[in-house]
């Protein structure tokens, strides 16, 4: 084959063109090089209300103590796939349309992949921010691969097993067995993440998301942690093992007091959850130390949070998430990074829809160019935000799941329930469909919820006086407050983008327009109006 060789003059011109191209891109490359790196560590079912953060000593020290903690962080929906979709899109469920953990519920359906995934913050980081994007762990419950990450290692389908699972590594199956040193999932994710940090390009910023299986069931601990916390029990807080007498029927159907065997089961589950978290703590330490050794920690934001909370015996419900109460909707949020002073705690109300806008803001991308419902809390973290103009409420939405046929073990319950335990206590049903306004301001700490059922059941809690939500005050609270909260709920349920960030009821800028409240009423809202009369 004949070889092709440039003549000297041509070589000079070619070299000159290369130099010109390089020089013309230097500002872009310099700007890109100085952009911060971003690490998001997402746990699965980690509560903050019933002690979930207690075993995570390293995490609290390396992220929380080194940065800022947000104790008032809430999810847009207390279930894995809708919540994770909210994190990725920065949208409430009514805008990203993921309602449960199934393909039928739009969890990583083809519709999601075509309409929502291209506008997720990792896709925007990759497309406009020149970021290397890496993902390892549980993405969405029904997904096998994703195109929004350059490198992606996913646990697909039935995806919270700690052994005997199959990873999808950039779309190729990688099977794992039950050898601890090679297969324990939390450690595998830690090692894959460390490898990425070691071999990634040093000339582009990176976004790394690590999504652990812990502390989701089946709560399989690493061998060295199996004997930890032998005397720990689920917290006996004021809501533990009591009857939810004034709550939605699904809560009222729980048997109180719980059987001794049920209490023993959930105590054991609580201990196992803590044990799995010790490996998450190790993962956090490995990632932070690797960044430090590579000299990248000072220019890296590290975020730690969860997709939803959890309960173990509250209101006699055995264990799960899905409910509207603090233990299920409140999650940990810890952040460290450039210009964030250590040992801070912010009382501001944050939602997981804010993670996307915040991460884009960290990368220098204007989130206002997107259709995201959330808002960036980066200015708050670095001391440049105005807390007096920060939002005072967020929306929580959940669509209940049930089976069309009765549970053979519990025929008396009839069809429509799901997540039932052997003693016929069920954690979900079709009409466990609700929407809430969670308000937090100097004037009020309030939760207002409506169920989409035949009763149009309403639950209201004053969390200043009643932090464990023991007493539903819907029938005793001032009528005007109910009307205002109902109005605000309707506004948030139809909001999109900027309209989701308008002033709440307890914000001085809030405008109450009662006549608009009943325009174009649905049958559900018509029933609610009749109840007010």
TrEMBL record:
<dbReference type="InterPro" id="IPR017850">
    <property type="entry name" value="Alkaline_phosphatase_core_sf"/>
</dbReference>
<dbReference type="InterPro" id="IPR012251">
    <property type="entry name" value="GlcNAc_6-SO4ase"/>
</dbReference>
<dbReference type="GO" id="GO:0046872">
    <property type="term" value="F:metal ion binding"/>
</dbReference>
<keyword id="KW-0325">Glycoprotein</keyword>
<dbReference type="GO" id="GO:0008449">
    <property type="term" value="F:N-acetylglucosamine-6-sulfatase activity"/>
</dbReference>
<dbReference type="InterPro" id="IPR024607">
    <property type="entry name" value="Sulfatase_CS"/>
</dbReference>
<feature type="domain" description="Sulfatase N-terminal">
    <location>
        <begin position="36"/>
        <end position="365"/>
    </location>
</feature>
<keyword id="KW-0479">Metal-binding</keyword>
<dbReference type="GO" id="GO:0005764">
    <property type="term" value="C:lysosome"/>
</dbReference>
<protein>
    <recommendedName>
        <fullName>N-acetylglucosamine-6-sulfatase</fullName>
        <ecNumber>3.1.6.14</ecNumber>
    </recommendedName>
</protein>
<feature type="modified residue" description="3-oxoalanine (Cys)">
    <location>
        <position position="80"/>
    </location>
</feature>
<keyword id="KW-0106">Calcium</keyword>
<dbReference type="Pfam" id="PF00884">
    <property type="entry name" value="Sulfatase"/>
</dbReference>
<keyword id="KW-0732">Signal</keyword>
<keyword id="KW-0378">Hydrolase</keyword>
<dbReference type="GO" id="GO:0030203">
    <property type="term" value="P:glycosaminoglycan metabolic process"/>
</dbReference>
<dbReference type="InterPro" id="IPR000917">
    <property type="entry name" value="Sulfatase_N"/>
</dbReference>
<dbReference type="GO" id="GO:0005539">
    <property type="term" value="F:glycosaminoglycan binding"/>
</dbReference>
<feature type="signal peptide">
    <location>
        <begin position="1"/>
        <end position="30"/>
    </location>
</feature>
<keyword id="KW-0458">Lysosome</keyword>
<comment type="similarity">
    <text>Belongs to the sulfatase family.</text>
</comment>
